[in-house]
């Protein structure tokens, strides 16, 4: 069963990450943010309790879209050009609440850490048993990644939200890719691309010592 025409499908979202990486192994911000916009729509479909999760992602995507449309837009075509521009102009290490706007680098770093969670979660979903619990997969992948960077109160709220996730097969169905088997196959195709985007970003940020930006 194919996804109904016009209906939201996670296939298109994950496809956006496929078009991120250029031949020169640069990560394009346009499709990266497009992928995030789609993920946020998907988070909304999981119910109101997920809105606090999506709210922060929306804010981060918005900051980046403003850079991509702003005066310096040609510097924000790829992650590589952004890092080079912001480092060369001393825009990166500003403390938060210093009155300076959040840099692209620190903002992307948050999305990048969340992408690690998403990747682990989808991988867990793909390889899980039919009767495995989505909430457990989600909590385990969160604890193994993003939770490290979150204070107790956010970790608590996130864990409560995860408990409301539907069973694995229902979850695979709301991805709107087809049957659970088709959704699993699609994840198998799409995940290497997300892993690639994650890997290139991680290497870029590590190389420039940007992995701990406040
Ligand atoms: C079903 C699985 C879906 C995974 C989608 C990933 C969405 C990630 C958004 C997590 C947001 C949690 C609440 C916000 C926390 C912020 O404090 C934190 N942001 C993130 C993205 O980790 C840190 O941002 P800050 O305060 O340094 O600007």
Automatic annotation (TrEMBL):
A single GO molecular function term of this UniProt record: lipid binding
Reaction(s) this enzyme catalyzes, per UniProt: N-(hexadecanoyl)-sphing-4-enine-1-phosphate(in) = N-(hexadecanoyl)-sphing-4-enine-1-phosphate(out); N-(9Z-octadecenoyl)-sphing-4-enine-1-phosphate(in) = N-(9Z-octadecenoyl)-sphing-4-enine-1-phosphate(out)
Main location: membrane
Cytoplasm found in the keyword field: yes
UniProt superkingdom: Eukaryota
Phosphoprotein listed as a keyword: no
Keywords: Cell membrane, Cytoplasm, Endosome, Golgi apparatus, Lipid transport, Lipid-binding, Membrane, Nucleus, Transport
GO CC aspect terms: cytosol; endosome membrane; Golgi apparatus; nuclear outer membrane; plasma membrane
Biological process annotations from GO: lipid transport; negative regulation of interleukin-1 beta production
Domain Glycolipid transfer protein: 29-176
InterPro entries in the cross-refs: GLTP_sf (IPR036497), Glycolipid_transfer_prot_dom (IPR014830)
Location in or out of the cell: Cell membrane; Cytoplasm, Cytosol; Endosome membrane; Golgi apparatus, trans-Golgi network membrane
Membrane topology type: Peripheral membrane protein
Entry's family note: Belongs to the GLTP family.
Protein name: Ceramide-1-phosphate transfer protein
Source organism of the structure: Grus japonensis
Upper lineage: Eukaryota, Metazoa, Chordata, Craniata, Vertebrata
């Amino acid at each position: 069963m194919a996804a109904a025409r016009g209906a939201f499908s996670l296939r298109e979202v994950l496809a956006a990450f496929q078009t991120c990486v250029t031949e020169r192994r640069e990560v394009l911000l346009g499709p990266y943010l497009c992928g995030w916009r789609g993920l946020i729509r998907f988070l909304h479909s999981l119910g109101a309790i997920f809105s606090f999760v999506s709210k922060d992602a929306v804010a981060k995507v918005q900051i980046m879209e403003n850079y991509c449309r702003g005066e310096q837009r040609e510097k924000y075509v790829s992650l590589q050009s952004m890092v080079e521009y912001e480092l060369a102009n001393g825009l990166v290490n500003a403390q938060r609440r210093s009155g300076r706007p959040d840099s692209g680098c620190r903002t992307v770093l948050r999305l990048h850490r969340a992408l690690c969670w998403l990747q682990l979660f989808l991988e867990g979903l793909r390889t899980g048993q039919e009767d495995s619990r989505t909430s457990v997969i989600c909590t385990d992948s969160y604890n193994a990644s993003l939770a490290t960077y979150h204070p107790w109160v956010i970790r608590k709220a996130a864990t409560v939200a995860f408990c409301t996730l539907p069973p694995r097969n229902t979850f695979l169905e709301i991805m709107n890719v087809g049957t659970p088997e088709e959704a699993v196959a699609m994840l198998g195709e799409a995940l290497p691309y997300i892993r690639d985007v994650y890997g290139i970003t991680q290497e870029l940020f590590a190389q420039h010592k940007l992995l701990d930006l406040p």
